[in-house]
Design a protein that fits this description.
Blueprint lengths: L1 H27 L15 H17 L9 H18 L4 E7 L2 E10 L6 E8 L9 H17 L8 E8 L13 H12 L3 E8 L28 E5 L4 H14 L4 E5 L12 H6 L4 E5 L21 H19 L1
Parallel strand pairs: 3-4, 3-5, 5-8, 6-7
Antiparallel strand pairs: 1-2, 2-4, 6-8
Helix pairs in contact: 2-4, 2-8, 3-4, 4-8, 6-8
Length: 330
C-alpha cells in the first residue's frame, strides 16, 4: 500500500510537466528553421510583383468597403473580378443576401489534368466599419489575385486550385453563417469535395526591425521573437499536418523569417479569419498573417491606408507562396 501511494504522488508530480511538454511539442514543433539575417535584394520578378500588389491595394482599399459602405464594396468586387478576368479566368460568383444586401464571394478555378482534390487559397475583401482596410485585408486579397496570375498556366496533376475572395469576414457577420467563408466551406462540404487544405491570407503587410515591436497573447511572448519582422503560420487543432507541410515548404523555398504553430480557439487571434469557417466543416485550414493587432497600430482604424503597407516584403512572401502552392498541390 505504501508503494501505491508513493507511486501516486510521484505520478502527480511528474505527469503534468510531461503533458505540458508533449502539448507544447504538438502545437509548436514545425519543420525547418526560420531565416535569419538581411533579406536578399529583390529580384526583378519581386519588384514587378510589388508594383502589382500596390496597384491592387490602392484600388481596393482607398475607402471603407463593407455592407455599411455598399457602393464601395461593390466597386471592390468588380475590380477583383475584372483583374481575374484579365488574367484569363472565368470568374464564378457565390451570391447570397444578408440583411437586405446582396453580396458575393468571388472564385477563380484552375483545374489540374485529372483533379481528385481541392486546394483553396483565399482572403476576405471586405473592410471593418470605417477602416479602408489596406492591410486588413487588401494585402491578402492582392496576394490571392497575384497567386492566381502566377499559377495560371500551371496544371497540377490531380489538384484543383480554387482562388477565392470572401465577403463578410468582418463584424457583424464574423463567426456567423453569413460569413462568406462559411457559405463557401458549406458548399464544398455539400458537394463532397475532397479538400487538401485551405490557406487564408490575412493582414500581411506590416513589418518592423525595431526590437520589442511584436506582442503576443500569453504565454507566447516567452517563446517567439520580439521583433516584428516575420510572417506567422497558425492554425487550430486538427490542422497540424497541413500546417507543417505549408511552413516546411515556405522555409525550404524562401529566405524570410517565419514562425508557426497551433493553438486552441480560446487564444485571442488564432481563429480570427476565414480559416475558422473551414475548420468547422472538418477541412484542414491555416492562416498566414503578420499577426495583425499584435504589431500593427492601425488595425481596424481609419488610418489603415495603402501607404502603411510594406509592398516589398509582401511581394517576397507572395513569391514564396507561389512555390508553396506548387509543392502542396503536387
Amino acid at each position: 500500500m505504501r508503494g501505491f501511494w508513493l507511486g501516486l504522488v510521484i505520478g502527480l508530480i511528474v505527469i503534468p510537466p510531461t503533458l505540458i511538454i508533449a502539448c507544447g511539442w504538438y502545437m509548436l514543433a514545425v519543420p525547418g528553421r526560420s531565416y535569419k539575417g538581411p533579406l536578399p535584394a529583390p529580384t526583378p520578378k519581386e519588384r514587378d510583383l510589388a508594383s502589382r500588389l500596390r496597384a491592387h491595394v490602392l484600388a481596393i482599399a482607398s475607402a471603407p468597403h463593407n455592407v455599411q459602405h455598399d457602393q464601395e464594396l461593390e466597386a471592390a468586387a468588380l475590380y477583383i473580378e475584372g483583374e481575374l478576368q484579365k488574367i484569363g479566368y472565368s470568374v464564378g460568383r457565390q451570391e447570397f443576401s444578408v440583411d437586405g444586401n446582396n453580396v458575393r464571394n468571388i472564385e477563380a478555378v484552375q483545374d489540374g489534368r485529372d483533379p481528385t482534390a481541392t486546394l483553396v487559397v483565399g482572403a476576405h475583401y471586405d473592410s471593418y466599419e470605417d477602416a479602408p482596410g489596406a492591410n486588413d485585408n487588401a494585402t491578402g486579397t492582392a496576394a490571392v489575385i497575384e497567386l492566381a496570375r502566377l499559377l495560371k498556366d500551371w496544371q497540377p496533376e490531380h489538384t484543383r486550385l480554387r482562388f477565392v475572395l470572401f465577403v463578410n469576414e468582418e463584424p457583424p457577420y464574423y463567426r456567423t453563417r453569413d460569413m462568406g467563408s462559411w457559405r463557401y466551406a458549406e458548399r464544398l462540404s455539400d458537394t463532397g469535395d475532397r479538400v487538401l487544405g485551405m490557406i487564408a491570407l490575412e493582414t500581411m503587410g506590416a513589418f518592423s526591425d525595431t526590437p520589442n515591436s511584436q506582442r503576443y497573447p500569453q504565454p507566447f511572448g516567452l517563446i517567439f521573437p520580439s521583433t516584428a519582422n516575420f510572417i506567422a503560420f497558425v492554425g487550430l487543432p486538427g490542422a497540424r499536418g497541413f500546417l507543417r507541410d505549408v511552413i516546411g515548404s515556405f522555409r525550404r523555398n524562401l529566405a524570410f523569417p517565419s514562425i508557426g504553430g497551433l493553438a486552441p480557439d480560446i487564444v485571442p487571434g488564432i481563429g480570427w479569419s476565414d480559416h475558422w469557417a473551414f475548420q468547422q466543416f472538418g477541412f484542414p485550414a491555416i492562416m498566414i498573417t503578420d499577426t495583425a493587432p499584435y504589431r500593427y497600430p492601425h488595425y481596424h482604424l481609419p488610418s489603415d491606408t495603402p501607404d502603411k503597407v510594406d509592398y516589398d516584403k509582401l511581394a517576397r512572401i507572395t513569391s514564396g507562396l507561389e512555390l508553396v502552392v506548387r509543392d502542396i498541390a503536387r
